[in-house]
Amino acid sequence: MRRIDNDAIRAAGEIRFRSEYDYAVFEYVRSSKVIQSVERSGVKLKGRVLDAGCGSGGTALSIAEEVSFAVGLDLSPRFSDAGTKLAREKRIRNVAFTQGDGLRLPYANESFDVVLSHSVIEHLPEAEAYIAECARVLKHGGRFYLSTAPTLSLAGAHLPRLRVPVPIHLFLGRKLAFRAFVFLAARAPWMLKEQSSANTFVKLAESGREKEDDLLTPVTLRGMSGWISRSPFRLISEQRYVTGFFKRVIPGFLRPFFLEIPVVGDVMVSQIECVLEKP
Prior knowledge:
Elements: H1 6-14, H2 20-40, E1 48-52, H3 58-64, E2 69-74, H4 83-90, E3 95-99, E4 112-118, H5 127-136, E5 138-148, H6 168-172, H7 174-187, H8 200-206, H9 221-229, E6 234-242, H10 244-249, H11 255-259, H12 264-268, E7 269-277
Parallel strand pairs: 1-2, 1-4, 2-3, 4-5
Antiparallel strand pairs: 5-7, 6-7
Helix pairs in contact: 1-2, 2-3, 7-8
């Protein structure tokens, strides 16, 4: 199992927004966590693997070191000067990158043994169409690893952090909170915990631009279950990771009860991790 180096992940994370290449390096280093989660869930990385929403390409490169061939796809060609450069440096040749739409994957039916989707589905306008496309390109008996975070959680809100840890999206609503962070990034960046190298809001504000909201589909625990139940897949396992705060304040035997309460469960969970199989 791939070893996780938290110090290296933290160091790469602090400068990940300095450039697309730096973000690719961050993805490559952080991929140890993704690969461990995949392996822990029971999915065997083998054969041809598709990273369906690869970003700068670092995770796809890391996966290529584990399998016969890996493909990274993203709507934006962020990987063109980042993942490809890192691939040359790492001498990884069994990888390919494609610019393409996750709602219309440019691959033939049953092209892959495994499809991975890590923190992608919330950035697409049609979650169920994306899941159906991932099923189409997956071989029968193949596995789909799908992970994301509820929009109401700190991880799923995709917002910066204040120096004073207040989850303002829970009080203002996520859209208004987003506008508030755009304002703070431009007018009072000192109020934010992350600096520009780790914060796209501040980085764009420093260059005279404004962050665009790329969170297109709100994610909830119930919504996720509905997408899966209506999909061509069979659910193999689902894991809901509760944030450290709620682990400390809510006893373990009570957590399942709270997780089933709409909104409450969405705030408590930092990551939903699902393994699906194509019959």
